[in-house]
Amino acid sequence: YEAELSLRQLVEADANGLKQILDVLTLSKADLEARVQSLTEELLTLKTNHEEEINSLQCQLGDRINIEVTAAPSIDLNQILQEMRCRYESIVETNRKDVELWFNTQMEELNQQVVTSSQQQHCCQKDIIELRRTRNALEVELQAQHRMVPRRLSMPNLILVATVLV
């Protein structure tokens, strides 16, 4: 029984404390509601005064001010970008064709030079072969002449050749 009595007293004390807190909160709520009401009335008064001032200023200015808001014509950026893209693609294509034409021209000239050089090389090789044959023939003839010189030259002929050379 005593435990229940002390528990009851604790619960009653808590309830009394909560009632006091509830009273304080109720007073705070009433105060806040009064402030909200006051601020709402002040806002309404300010709006009314603002409208009256606007009307007063409009009456003072009369027809002197005519405000007209005109928006700039809208610009279609997608269309502009598409046009730019087309122009650049056209320029790129033109440049590609020009470079391809230049490359083909250079390749033709180079191929012509290669053909000409090959022909010249072939002619030069033929000339070299012909000159080697001529040289070989002349060497053979020279060797034959050298072999014949000792037989033809006798002492009197040597004197004659020596006199002619001097």
Structure in a nutshell:
Residues 1-166 form the IF rod domain. This protein is mostly helical and 166 residues long.
Describe, in plain words, how this protein is organized in 3D.
With 166 residues, the chain is an all-alpha fold. It has a domain at 1-66. It has helices at 2-61, 77-152, 155-165. It starts with a helix and ends with a helix.
Which descriptors would you attach to this protein?
0% strand; mainly alpha; elongated; 3 helices; 166 residues
User: What best-fitting shape do the alpha-carbon axes yield?
Assistant: elongated
- Give the assembly state of these chains: single chain
Q: Average pLDDT, to the nearest integer?
A: 86
**What is the H-and-E element order?**
HHH
Distance between the termini: 170 Å
Look at the helices and sheets and give the structural class.
Answer: mainly alpha
Binned, the helix content reads over 70%
Largest sheet: none
Roughly how many Å is the radius of gyration? Answer: 62 Å
List segments where confidence is low: pLDDT < 50 over at least 5 consecutive residues: none
The percent range for strand residues is: under 5%
- The number of helical segments is 3
How many strands in all?
0
Domain IF rod: 1-166
Coiled coil: 22-60
GO cellular component, one term: intermediate filament
GO biological process, one term: intermediate filament organization
